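Continuing the series of single-chain predictions for the mutant panel. This is the parent chain; the variants come on the following pages.
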Amino acid sequence: MRSDTVLKPASRPQPHWHSVAHRFPADRDCLTSFLAYESAEILAGVKPGSLINLVNRPHHCGRNFYRLWQECGAEVLAQSGLVGRVLVDRGASLLLLIYTPQLLEELLEKPSTRAMLRRAGYDHLEEMESILDQLQERCQQGEGFPHEIGIFLGYPLKDVAGFLGWVTIPFAVQGPWKIYGAPEKSLDLAATHQRCRERMVRKLARCCRPEECLSFSRKHFAIN
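Parent structure:
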């Protein structure tokens, strides 16, 4: 394959949270099911964190998740094993980082991760909360979000480095994130993330209460 060849990932119709949202008519249950879907990869133990943009207007289900998060979001996550941190609230929307402390801390302790963060200008890398404080400060300083945020989301470091222009490897394919260099492992990871969401939709379609689906355990379920 030539180095300038751009691959296109295979696509197929994917089950989505919208297909099961009608099962949760109560506001809190609807938010819980939405967060379970958006956190599916984290709950499966294959991703340390996810970034969710909650817009201050009605969602497809008719509910305003921006307001619902402010009203009961922390309470919804309280028993889940996940943590939600608002990186920036601009009134029209808020940027929410949901993560599991165990997996994110393990990632941030890796020498390769620390080297990337150090190059991005982070300091005081011994404490996860200090690192997250710096990320939050950077989000609040600009209109978008810092491009190194892919590190916190568990994206392959080569792809983050390629996106930042730190390495001279060619762009390969646009997936859920921009993939650089040899794409196979990154595409496999993206496919695993998608299978997590597909499985979560199936779980939400048959559960009695959405809280049953929003629970992290180190005993991860298999991704089929």
